[in-house]
Specification:
The chain is α/β, with parallel strands linked by helices. It has a single domain, classed as Rossmann fold (3-Layer(aba) Sandwich). Helices cover about 50% and strands about 15% of the residues. It is built from ten helices and seven strands. A seven-stranded parallel beta sheet has the order 3-2-1-4-5-6-7, sandwiched between helices. Helix 2 packs across helix 9 and helix 4 runs parallel beside helix 5. The relative contact order is 0.12. It binds nicotinamide-adenine-dinucleotide.
Length: about 280
């Protein structure tokens, strides 16, 4: 398709207003830019202002509609302010992406009360407070879509007890909200990535961890942020109009075919070692 032709078509989020938390982070930046390219007015929310502010200016310079807001997802007053901003500046709200999050890999016997409270507050309580804050405006805007960024840590085990609990909890919040607010025209779904490259969370991964990933994940690599963003876009748009309470796994096959894949990798290595010994 010619570029001009694409530009003349209405985007997949044309006429929608979207609020994305963690918009200064690896995935948040890519999701926000994609949403803006698809015609949404975007509200970028984060506690770390620099990258989100810069992206908001870039979108506006290109002729899009964007606003950055400093929003700590754990603070109800920040959510109230963001909701008022959406109403005042863009006339409503149609999409919330609960993307902000922090990782923690501490096992249960070592975790402190403080770490537990912090991770649960940001990854679980934050999205719940946000959901509560935006729901009436989604209803008054004619309905909408909430996309909760969970993790494969909500489907299988994860080394960090706080992270696992927060992401399993968010999966529950997704289902409960999807059930209760159908009559308001609100759909709620969760997205479950495994590892995502070019993110703050992956920045400290060791070479050994990356090598192990290549062996353990059937697609032999982490996801690129755009591969997750495309899934979030689909759930945010009307293209997913019959999908609610669902979870979409974006993990290169890790949770579905990971076990037989790893067995094949190990069997292969074992056969090669045996052949060398003969
Ligand atoms: N990177 C991965 O491998 C991976 C895998 C599965 C799921 N996830 C999930 O994806 C989401 C996005 O993370 P990412 O991979 O882009 O990591 P990231 O660290 O690059 O981005 C996270 C963003 O959240 C923001 N944030 C942290 N605390 C906040 C708060 N209290 N209020 C508002 N914003 C806050 C950070 O400032 C940062 O910009 C997270 O929910 C994460 O748990 C990430």
């Amino acid at each position: 398709m010619m570029r001009g032709e694409r530009m003349s078509k209405p985007g997949r989020l044309h006429g929608k207003v979207a609020l994305i938390t963690g918009a200064s982070g690896g995935q948040g930046l890519v999701e926000t830019e994609l949403f803006a390219d698809e015609g949404a007015a975007v509200i970028l929310a984060d506690v770390s202002d620099g990258p989100g502010k810069a992206l908001a200016s870039k979108i506006v310079k290109r002729g899009g509609r964007a606003l950055y807001v400093n929003l700590d997802v754990t603070r109800p007053a920040h959510w109230s302010r963001a909701v008022r901003l959406a109403q005042r500046e863009f006339g409503g709200l149609h999409v919330l992406v609960n993307n902000a999050g922090v990782v923690s890999r501490t096992p249960a016997a070592e975790v402190t009360d403080r770490e537990w409270a912090r991770v649960l507050a940001i990854n679980l309580t934050g999205p719940m407070i946000g959901t509560r804050a935006v729901l009436p405006l989604l209803r008054d805007s004619g309905g909408g879509s909430i996309v909760n960024i969970s993790s494969t840590a909500a489907l299988v085990g994860h080394p960090g007890v706080c992270y696992a609990a927060s992401k399993w909890g968010l999966r529950g919040v997704t289902k409960a909200t999807a059930l209760q607010y159908l009559s308001w025209g609100v759909r709620v779904n969760s997205v479950h990535p495994a590892q995502v490259s070019e993110t703050g969370m992956m920045a400290n991964a060791t070479p050994a961890f990356r090598a192990a990933n290549r062996q353990a994940i059937p697609m032999a690599r982490a996801a690129r942020p755009m591969e997750v963003a495309q899934c979030v876009l689909f759930l945010a748009s009307d293209e997913s109009s019959y999908i609610t309470g669902s979870e979409i796994v974006v993990d290169g096959g890790a949770t579905s075919i990971g076990f037989p894949h790893v067995r094949n990798v190990l069997a292969d290595a074992y056969n090669k070692r045996s052949a060398r010994r003969r």
